[in-house]
Structure formats: structure tokens, C-alpha cells
What does this fold into?
Amino acid sequence: MMISKKIYQFAARVVLAYLRLFARISLRIYTPTIIGIAGAVGKTSTKHALYAMLKDKASTTILPGNSETGIPLGILGIPIAGYGYGNWIRVLFKAPFGIFHLRNSRIQYLIAEMGTDAPYPPKNMSFLLSIIKPHIALFLNVTPTHIAFFEQAVKDSCQNKTKAALQIMAEEDGKIITASHCKVGIYNADNTYIHAVMEQFRSSNSANEIPVLQTFGRDETNTISYAHHTISSTNTRFEYMLSIDEKKIALALVFRNTILPIEYRELFAAVLLTGLQLHIPIPEMCTAIEHNFSLPKGRSSVFCGINNSTIIDSSYNSSPAAMHAFLTLTHELKQQHQSPLIVVCGDMNELGGEAEAAHMEIARHIFTVADECYCTGPLTRQYIMPLLTSLNKKEPHLQHLEWSENAKKIGELLRTRISQGALVLVKGSQGGIFLEEAIKQLLINKDDAHKLCRQESYWLAEKRKQGLNV
It folds into this structure.
């Protein structure tokens, strides 16, 4: 068993080196302007916002993957249909021919998520930078999302493992600016972990060794600062104050038929600063973002449900920060429209030692805003349900509180009892939770099912393996 594991690890290293070689050759030949994005949450939405801003201006592509395999496969234009040996053999055969993919697409801008899951290769930023180096680097945030493997790098004697793990995460993700030799670094000045990394970077290097650095945050001393955020059942408006050459310029982004939480102000601020560095006129980039921006499936999509309900679909993934954000958002909408709020909640995965505390904080937040709550997943059963049950006994508030073994059963149950005009928030992590299957049962227009995440044949097969009849 030990020998086979070593053989597997050796083969994996060989495959990664092989893919990296051809990806680097391609980038060296066609030299697109690379925009890299790091951070715990919001990378994908930022990628799509950048694409919205640039797509009408020049040939632009976004890499579909964000990992040690996803990035080189995206550069080489090789989709992967599965992860069996046969699939990988086909990938290895196609890789040398993939160096011409960027030529065929004539790409001027290449946008890449650069996601780290651990502080060691090939899951870290250092390895990703050995494949692709951004000219413009965006560092969005540091939160306990995907913290489990970073905690393993912390010494057992450390008293605050979570804080130490977040510091390691900030240092690793921060390499997108500090170790990439990028021309421009754009970062979140409000995040204490990012601020510490960047201050250390400034103090350890001479001025001519540091890229152009621009910041976004609450304080008006930042290059761009936040003003107001307003939402309705159909629109979202973000207002900013931009500081250029000691001048203050107010600007706004208005998204129609889209409901976005206040936390999205960070990613749009980073995108606007990127546009300025690319010398795009402010009115032009604002108009492009407003007109072209759309979120991938399962990230704040809005659907019409049965009984005149409104479904906010954030089923693709979840983290504590994102869950709190959407609970706050839907509570505000509930107050505006006097609608009952139903929360469909799945596990938040990869939180390591923070899992218990994070889920219990979410339980408390749910109790303060929701009228009904339905959960699935072992972590919600272990942490959220007992606390909500206890709180509800002391102060009866939740009309319905139930745990189900899978998302489809939640949908079937809700279909029989959903309140007229209810607001339904659906949010949970990946990793076998599949909350989109609850939404399927509630859609008034069944054709909307193809707009849900994980409806491809691969994922439908995975769901069937887990006993879901989809």
C-alpha cells in the first residue's frame, strides 16, 4: 500500500510538471496581460466582473479552473470530462497541441483565479506562480474558508491555531503580490491579515522593488473607498469614492434584476481599480460592468418559486462570511416586503477546528432572522440543529425546524408547505450537499432547472451514486 501511494504521488508530480511545461511555453509565446485573483472568497465573482469590464474592449478569456491542474488545462484549452485514468491519458496526449490555444483565441487579457488550499506544493501560491505570473494581482480577503490544511502547518503548542493559520494563509496568498514580480498589486486594506503582510512587504523592499500598490476599503485614504449600498427585490446599487491625484470622484454601479450583498463591494472596488490601471475611462468601465456582469450558476441567482415565492440560489458553495452576508441581505429584503423568510442551510466544509464555532454562529444568526429553517449535512445536524432547537424551546420563533438526509427531501417537504410570497435562501457548501436539488422541487418554471449548478452529466451521475433520484 505504501509503495502504491508513493508511485501515485510520483505520477502526480510528473503529470503536473508536464502540464506546467506546456502551459508556460504557451504563455511565453503569446504573452497576454494576466490578471490574477487570490483570496478566500469572491474570486469567481471577481473573475466574471473583470470579464464583464474587458470583454467588449479586447479579446479576453477567463480560465475555468483555479488549481494546480485547472490553471494549466485552462491555458492549454483542454476540458476534462472526468478524473479516471483514461481521461488523464487523453489530457496528456492533447497537452503539446494546447500551446496553440491562446493563438487561436487571440487573447489580449487572461483572467485567472489562483486558489490555494494548503501552504505546501502543489496546493500553494508558490506552485501556482511557477505556472502563471500575473501582471496585475488582486488580493481580496483572508477568512477561515479552506483553513483545514493551513491549521495542520501550525505547531501543536500554538495557543491560537486559527489566528496562526490565517496568518500563514495571508502570507501564502499574499505571494500573488509579494513574490510574483507583478506590475500592479491591488489589495483589501481593511483585512488585518492582508494589511500586516503588505506592510511587511513594503518595509522589507526598496521603493523600486515594489509594484504599484493600490488599496480598497472603508477609509477614504484608500484609492477607492465605499459609500452606500442599497438593495430592492430586483436591483442592487454600490456607491464609491475614488481618490485620483488628490481629487475625489464619486461613482456608482447599478445592477438590475440582481440582488447582491454588501460584501460584493470589495470585489467591484478591486475590479474598478484594475480598470483604472488599464486606462479605461470611468464611465466606460462602469457601463461595461453594469451591462455585462452576470454570476455563474448557484451564486445569488434569483428564481420564481411556487406560491409566488422568491428563491435566492446561492447553492454552489458556502463559507461563514458568505453565509452571514446572505442572511443579512435576505433579512433586509424580508423587512422591505414583510415576507416570511425560509432558510435552507447545508454544511460549511473545510473549516478545520473552526467548524463547530462557525456553524453555531450561523445558527444564532438564522434564529434572529428566519421564520423557518431546513438543514442537511452532518455538520448542520451536529452543530446547527441542536442549538436552534434549544433556542426555539426557550423562545418559540421558528415555525418549522427540520433536518433531512438530503436536499431533495427538503425540496419535496417545502413543496407541500411553502408560504405564500415567501423568500427562500438556499446556501451550502460543495462536497455532497447538492442543495440545488431542493430548488428543483420549488421552481414554478421547470425549464429553469438547467440554470442551476451541477446539472452536467458528471454531477448527475455523482448524485445518483449517493442515492439521489435525479
In short: The chain has two domains: 32-58+108-292, 301-465. The chain has 17 helices and 15 strands. The chain has a mean pLDDT of 93. The domain at 32-58+108-292 is CATH 3.40.1190.10 (UDP-N-acetylmuramoyl-L-alanine:D-glutamate ligase).
